[in-house]
């Protein structure tokens, strides 16, 4: 099968009490798995069949918003979401990342409130992202299965704001879920690695390309 469901990078109970094992059980084992199964079904016999995931996301989106794009996009988004969290998130961001965050948003508290309000203001289902836009950090939101990857921006960290991500644990309190994500769960080391990789690509390809594979 071209697309696979990755194992969670931690135990299902590891993010408690902020995300329950029951939520992860459904979210990873049912929702994410369903996107993988559906995408594998739809991609059969198409020219996307053997493409690496990121390239397939970009190519499927270039061809329009289709059922295939929605399912491939959701695989990519969820893969990244699991990696964007860690049971050790309370340690906070490293001084190097904090410096970049301060440069872009003023300070960490401003970043936090902007990230939360961006996630809260996403109408309906979607995602809130910390991205590198040609070296500059930005917070962006996307609806449904959309990803900043298709706009040449490099995702550093993402939070799923579909109701299935938080409803069992937070019901309608999306802001509380987002606050727990930023304060307790976010994997800042992962964000920093992605940031360094984005800077490296920028250094290699220059400011006309963020290394997004779309050109
Ligand atoms: Mn989800």
Class from helix and strand fractions: mainly alpha
| Order of adjacent strands in the largest pleated sheet | 2-1-3
Number of extended strands: 3
Quick one: biggest sheet? 3 strands, antiparallel
CATH first level: which class?
A: Alpha Beta
Mean of pLDDT: 93
Instruction: Give the strand content.
Output: 5-15%
Number of helices: 8
Shape, please? Answer: globular
- Weakly predicted, low-confidence segments: 209-215
Order of helices and strands: HHHHHEEEHHH
Say what the CATH topology is.
Answer: minor pseudopilin epsh fold
Helix content percent band: 40-55%
Radius of gyration: 17 Å
CATH H-level superfamily? Iron/manganese superoxide dismutase, C-terminal domain
